[in-house]
Amino acid sequence: MTQLAASAAELPLGDRSFDIVLASDVLEHIPPPVRMKVISEALRVADKLVIFGFPCGKEAHDSDRALRQEYLDNNLKVPEWLEEHMEADFPEPSLFGNLHGWKVEQFSNESLGFHKWMMKREMNRLFVRVTGRISRSLPGLTEKLLRNRDGNPSYRQIFVLTRI
């Protein structure tokens, strides 16, 4: 694997350079006026498939705003990723509405209730250590448990784009 530092809005790569492009938890950190350019660049460098996953919509953003306040109320340092989440509204599904030449499928991922519950637990270092060990020791069981926590309303959406 070769490391590359570049702007997601201007990738220094040729068209269709990769079979698959995956952008997980990226779009919510991109300023809204630049998001379509980032999506376009991912589509340009992908030959077959692009997958985007991100916290999506107002309910998810409100949930993170409440989580940030809980950190502050408990005199805890707010994680950098959470501070970044407060800088702009989360992306909406409408970003993927008019993509010519691509089939778009959307899947809910991580129910909003489970996300709220898990984020509160992650404020506890012991919880993080124990669950980290369990997930590394029993990845199959962890995946099954997490799959059961998908649902609506959801915190995150997964968009699978296939070139037509």
TrEMBL record:
GO terms for biological process: methylation. Its EC number is 2.1.-.-. Keywords: Methyltransferase, Transferase. InterPro entries: Methyltransf_11, SAM-dependent_MTases_sf. The keyword Isomerase does not apply. GO terms for molecular function: S-adenosylmethionine-dependent methyltransferase activity. The keyword Transferase applies. Residues 4-46 form the Methyltransferase type domain. It comes from the Bacteria. SUPFAM superfamilies: S-adenosyl-L-methionine-dependent methyltransferases (SSF53335). This is Class I SAM-dependent methyltransferase. It comes from Tunturiibacter gelidiferens. The lineage of its organism: Bacteria, Pseudomonadati, Acidobacteriota, Terriglobia, Terriglobales.
